[in-house]
Design goal:
This protein is an alpha/beta fold and about 375 residues long. It has two domains: about 230 residues, Aspartate Aminotransferase, domain 2, CATH 3.40.640.10; about 130 residues, Aspartate Aminotransferase, domain 1 (Alpha-Beta Complex), CATH 3.90.1150. Helix content is about 35%, strand content about 15%. The protein has twelve helices and 13 strands. The chain has a seven-stranded mixed beta sheet, sandwiched between helices. A four-stranded antiparallel beta sheet has the order 10-11-13-12. It has a two-stranded antiparallel sheet with strand order 6-7. Helix 1 runs antiparallel to helix 7. The two termini are about 20 Å apart. The protein binds pyridoxal-5'-phosphate. Pyridoxal-5'-phosphate (PLP) binds next to helix 3.
Length: about 375
């Protein structure tokens, strides 16, 4: 039997060690170290933005973004139901109301045709979340935001190196956010970034990140912030990883193409689209949705693959079905049949950049066995 194949293995194949050793030798390990601003500048430039604000992770990047835009009690924010909890949690914590839209069954991204119906006089922003490797169709969203005077928060956590019609993901939001968790295309262990072109928003995010200390009277606070600071050690990893971003994206695309060809003869499954009219997939993860001819759900496949030492993850569970939100009275009437279906029928196979030669073949064989083909 083969070694266990985890759902993710990161790839730290550049200057990570060198830059980390420099931190240790110089003694610069906190958020005051020089790599932090270097990483912020380089990362922001890479996605065509003026300012980068590095934070502790991609989830808190969303918390800061929502508050920086002044979204609060009674405000509504439209977002996909099919996403990570971080998105809706940031809205709820700010006292605002998340309003969800269903997914497109082909791309798994938010169905942009459903947004306009959800806009009310209380809507303040659209939180766009690019899912699993393909960007959201941005043009209609940008047009709606303009027409109705809405802000855009763009969660580009899964989109390092991706573009929409040639323009970098992360360049579309009033505030756009990234994560550097180890399953993203580049990682700092834990870490995140907010990018923007607006100097006032950038300043606001910097302040929120650092407890809203004030420049002149440091310990007198006009507002409440958080400690969301990012360390020089994380920035050292980030600078090294950024140097390898192109190679990582290429590698993910090659992995996506390989899984697709290994699984192309498996009947009645849906695989990620290789491309849309506006982007080629970067395969953040390689998702599979079981067709209706299978008498079992994705969690049964996950069990059968685990028995063969293959790690998997279920798809996101829709926000409108989250017990924590139902308990506080949200989403009572909400139905999103596409997201409800893919949440139950979808899962992903080992997709990490550190996957070794031959492991994709092993996964494909194990998957066929799990389907009893
Ligand atoms: C990973 C991810 C996040 C959260 O990032 P963390 O760094 O893990 O907090 C947020 N949004 C999306 C879409 C993600 O994939």
């Amino acid at each position: 039997m083969h070694d266990p194949i985890p759902v993710n293995t990161p790839l730290l194949d550049g200057n990570e060690k060198k830059y980390l050793i420099e931190c240790i030798d110089s003694g610069w390990i906190s958020s005051e170290g020089p790599y932090v601003s270097q990483f912020e500048e380089k990362f922001a430039a890479r996605v065509g933005r003026k300012y980068g604000i590095a934070v502790s992770n991609g989830s808190v990047a969303l918390d800061a973004a929502v508050v920086a835009l002044g979204i609060g009690a009674g405000d509504e924010v439209i977002l996909p139901t099919f996403t990570i909890i971080s998105c809706a949690a940031a809205i709820v914590r700010a006292g605002a109301i998340p309003v969800v839209v269903d997914s497109d069954p082909v791309t798994w991204n938010m169905d942009v045709n459903q947004i306009e119906d959800k806009i009310t006089p209380r809507t303040k922003a659209i939180m766009v979340v690019h899912i699993y490797g393909l960007p959201v169709d941005m043009d209609p969203v940008l047009a709606l935001a303009k027409k109705h005077g809405l802000k855009i928060i763009e969660d580009a956590a899964e989109m390092h190196g991706q573009t929409y019609k040639g323009r970098p993901c992360g360049s579309f939001g009033d505030l756009s956010t990234f994560s550097f968790y180890p399953n993203k295309h580049i990682t700092t262990g834990e870490g995140g970034m907010i990018v923007t072109d607006d100097p006032a928003l950038a300043e606001k995010c910097r302040s929120l990140r650092n407890l809203c200390f004030q420049a002149k009277k440091r310990f007198i606070h006009e507002e409440i912030g958080w400690n969301f600071r990012f360390t020089n050690l994380q920035a050292a990893l980030g600078l090294a990883q950024l140097e390898t971003l192109e190679a990582h994206v290429q590698r993910k695309r090659a992995m996506g193409a390989k899984y697709t060809s290994l699984l192309k003869d498996v009947p009645d499954i849906q695989l990620p689209l290789a491309k849309t009219g506006y982007a080629d997939n970067i395969y953040w993860i390689f998702g599979i949705v079981l067709g209706d001819s299978y008498a079992f759900d994705a969690d049964e496949i996950a069990r059968r693959l685990a028995a063969q030492k293959i790690g998997t993850r279920p798809f996101f569970w829709p926000m409108h079905e989250q017990p924590v939100f139902r308990k506080i009275g949200l989403f009572k009437e909400t139905r999103c049949p596409v997201a409800e279906r893919i949440a139950r029928r979808g899962f992903y196979v080992p997709s990490g950049l550190g996957l070794k030669a031959g492991e994709m073949e092993t996964v494909a064989d194990a998957f066929r066995k799990a389907l009893a083909l």
